[in-house]
Amino acid sequence: MNLRHLEMELERLEGFERPTSRLEQYGTPAPVAARLLHHAAMQGAIEGRRVVDLGCGTGILGCGAALLGASAVTGLDIDPAAVAAARRNADRLGLDIEFVVADVRDSGLDWGRFACDTVVMNPPFGAQKVHADRPFIDRALEIAGEVYGIFNQGSAAFVAAYTEGRAVVVEVIRCRFPMRRTFAHHRSDRMDITVEAIHLRRRI
């Protein structure tokens, strides 16, 4: 599936019905999701691979990975309403994806069952809670060898330092992230920000 076709398929998916600012529930725009996934696929990290969408929200990254031929896809999110929307989205595209309500910070969960080849994720940027992305990075490197994540602009140096000794930053791709008015504190109908799609590879 080419990039444009993937983007068109992902545009069909529903977003958050009642997003909460506490969880930073900004929907991942289809062009950004498609670009991240297509790039990962070109590097052999999606097709035929076990993929986990960590903090899946309404499932756009997981659905895209399934469309690109992942052998198995699992999506995890703390919000039951988001997981329900993710299931509807997978059904809309005729995809077989497992979605689980789970908190990435839950050390009591058997994370071994979610071991995979590749994690894709759009973790919180930390606007509401500083370093909210750290548990996602930690869990991603625990369960996968390859990690593709969307981070706020300027995060690459932090991610490299935070994961030193555990992973290497393979690549950083900057792209435009159109953010629609979602919460009361947003002042405009749309604001374009720059994000960094970061590819991490776990050290053996």
TrEMBL record:
Family, per entry: Belongs to the methyltransferase superfamily. PrmA family.
CDD domains, per the entry: AdoMet_MTases
Pfam families in the record: MTS
GO biological process: methylation
Residues spanning the membrane: none
Domain Methyltransferase small: 41-134
UniProt GO MF annotations: nucleic acid binding; S-adenosylmethionine-dependent methyltransferase activity
UniProt cross-references to Gene3D superfamilies, sorted A to Z: Vaccinia Virus protein VP39 (3.40.50.150)
Name used for this protein in its record: Methyltransferase-like protein 5
